[in-house]
Amino acid sequence: MRGLGEVAESDVAGFLAALRQGDDGHPPLSATSAARAVVAVRGLHRFALLDGLVPDDVAAEVRPPAPARRLPKAIPVESVVALIEAAGTLEGPRGLRDRALLEVLYGTGARISEAVGLAVDDLDRGQSVVRLAGKGGKQRIVPVGSFALRAVEDYLVRARPALAAAGRTGVRGGALFLNARGGTLSRQSAWSILRAAAARAGGVDGDLARTVSPHTLRHSFATHLLDGGADVRVVQELLGHASVTTTQVYTLVTVDRLREVYASSHPRALT
């Protein structure tokens, strides 16, 4: 049995490699699981150094494996249209509200929390822009397309007054999107609206209900802009990302799409 002071950096690196490769008795670990184990080992050696049990921290330079980057899941434009159309099929004020909400989510790339946090005055219909409050309270101005503007106009004229009247004190503040009791629509309710619309639109895209997530329309907004030729730094500003590196993950999706088109269209793409 070797003591802690006899462990070398190569031993720790070899331990990580063994975790990732597995053997006859142990399946290989994912990057995330292996990283947890390596972090524990690094913590042990760091403690031993601080406590004077070893002269060097041999695990300090062994980096945990980075987990595989999860690509954002966008849906095709026709599925977005089906989703929005399905949201508007409900009778009465709720259908107009739900359609307007989804149009705003897709038309601006807003997070659900940003959309439900909108006040009526945050939307400048004359300039066709909206003011969104992102993470850390950082605000940004984002253009709003004609489809979203029309949907919001219909909602403000034909639906919001009825929803506001359901509240005991009328309009509670200036929230744009209201619930059936006249209060501000919650993030959870907005997510339920999106999920219900996906279920109703399932006939157009069979797995849409399983694909949709709170960020589906935001991911689709970014991917469709890049597919259309938008500059990644413009998309970064629209999404409110602090770093362009965060936005560049969408370019990986676009490259995959380019490969698909190339493979299916070029006469000498496939052997």
From TrEMBL:
Residue span, Core-binding (CB) domain: 1-49
GO BP of this protein: DNA integration; DNA recombination
PROSITE patterns membership: CB, TYR_RECOMBINASE
Keyword DNA-binding part of the UniProt annotation: yes
SUPFAM superfamilies from the UniProt entry: DNA breaking-rejoining enzymes
Segments forming domain Tyr recombinase: 70-263
Pfam families in the record: Phage_integrase
Example GO molecular function: DNA binding
Kinase keyword on record: no
Coiled coil, from the record: none
PANTHER family, alphabetized: PHAGE INTEGRASE-RELATED, TYROSINE RECOMBINASE XERC
Protein's UniProt name: Integrase/recombinase XerD
Organism: Geodermatophilus pulveris
